[in-house]
Amino acid sequence: MARDNTESSKEVSEVEKVMMSRFANRFYLHREVDLEAITGILNAARYAATGGNVQPWRVYVLAGAAKTALADAIATAHETASGEHKSEYNYLPAPLPEPFASRRNEFASVFYGSLGIAQEDMAARAVQSARNCRFFDAPVGLIFTIDRRLEKGSWLDLGMFIQNIMLAAKARGLDTCTQEFLSRYHAVIRTQLPLAAEELVVCGMSMGFGDPEWARRRPQMPKAPLEEFASLHGF
């Protein structure tokens, strides 16, 4: 007997469960990730959609001493001369229009509030932000670049590649956190990694086994309901 389409449409697939369970994790266990798992994730992620099969991504994956060296260099730059470092692109406009500004403010309130950090406590917020420099103490750090000669369409492709990595990692029991913060330290990153001149640093990513204690008490970040962002026609 054929299954009722309405009934089946309400079921959540295993892929969708992975998508909805993923979140930006900033707290990790001191537990190594096998190289086989990392290469498996990257092998799956390379099947991301890409216009004209351009495949505009490059990723540098670091662990152990290599990750420590990069983290130390970035942390030193952040502590001593943060004002001298700036990303090569603008992630968000200033000022940020509505409703996006309100959503960003809500994120800050929910996230920092979960850590017991008051909205106005800029010093404590700065300490938490500085943890970006060390990939939030995750065992694996990734740096993503794109050829600066490409256009915005290729950035869409890179985003799908990064999303594939996050989902493949989650499916293997690993957590991730993308880090636009690290793009401002592209000059420092170049001293540690063999980037070509045309490579533009887009972001970093932390990857590892998330701290289960944090996973239990972390707040659920609010997401806009479907009717707020989708317009359906002809159904």
From TrEMBL:
The protein, known as: Nitroreductase
Q: What InterPro entries does the entry give?
A: Nitroreductase (IPR029479), Nitroreductase-like (IPR000415)
Q: Which GO terms describe its molecular function?
A: oxidoreductase activity
For this protein, the record's PANTHER family field holds: NAD(P)H NITROREDUCTASE YDGI-RELATED, NITROREDUCTASE
Q: Per UniProt, which keywords does this protein have?
A: Flavoprotein, FMN, Oxidoreductase
Q: Please name one Pfam family that this protein belongs to.
A: Nitroreductase
Where the record annotates domain Nitroreductase, the positions are 20-208
- Database matches in Gene3D superfamilies: NADH Oxidase
Q: Report the family membership.
A: Belongs to the nitroreductase family.
| CDD domains cross-referenced by the UniProt entry | PnbA_NfnB-like (cd02136)
Species in which this protein is naturally found = Undibacterium terreum
Required cofactors, per record?
FMN
Respond yes or no to whether keyword Oxidoreductase is given for this record.
yes
